[in-house]
């Protein structure tokens, strides 16, 4: 259950005014947490774990969207 606590702490982190390298680190950490939680979910099939993974995925997508930047207009 240490992994779940780590994921919950990750969610509570401040995500404002981050540098590019901070965004990359957050994205990688989120991916690692999601994959580790998925291994637990495969065994236990607990919906709470799935909900945590979904919330982490939303955070990860927001960070990656900001990393990619705005698309160039034609």
**What is the beta-strand fraction?**
under 5%
Strand element count: 0
CA gyration radius, whole angstroms: 14 Å
Order of helices and strands: HHH
Alpha-carbon distance between the two ends: 49 Å
Structural class designation: mainly alpha
Query: What is the helical fraction, as a range of percent?
Result: over 70%
Profile the largest sheet.
none
Which stretches of 5+ consecutive residues score pLDDT under 50? none
Supply the number of helical segments: 3
**Overall pLDDT, averaged?**
87
Q: What characteristic shape results from the CA principal axes? A: elongated
Compact summary:
The chain is mainly α and 74 residues long. The protein is built from 3 helices and no strands.
Helices and strands, with pairings:
Blueprint: H1 2-12, H2 20-44, H3 47-68
Describe this structure in words.
This protein has 74 residues and is mostly helical. The protein is built from three helices and no strands. Helix 1 crosses helix 3 (47-68). It starts with a helix and ends in a 6-residue tail after the last helix. It comes from Flaviramulus multivorans. This is 50S ribosomal protein L29.
List keywords for this structure.
elongated, mainly alpha, 0% strand, 74 residues
């Amino acid at each position: 259950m240490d992994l779940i606590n780590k994921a919950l702490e990750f969610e509570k982190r401040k995500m404002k005014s981050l540098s590019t390298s901070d965004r990359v680190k957050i994205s990688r950490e989120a991916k690692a947490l999601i994959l580790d939680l998925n291994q637990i979910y495969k065994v236990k099939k607990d919906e709470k774990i799935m909900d945590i993974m979904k919330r982490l995925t939303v955070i990860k997508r927001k960070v990656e969207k900001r990393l990619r930047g705005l698309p160039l207009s034609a």
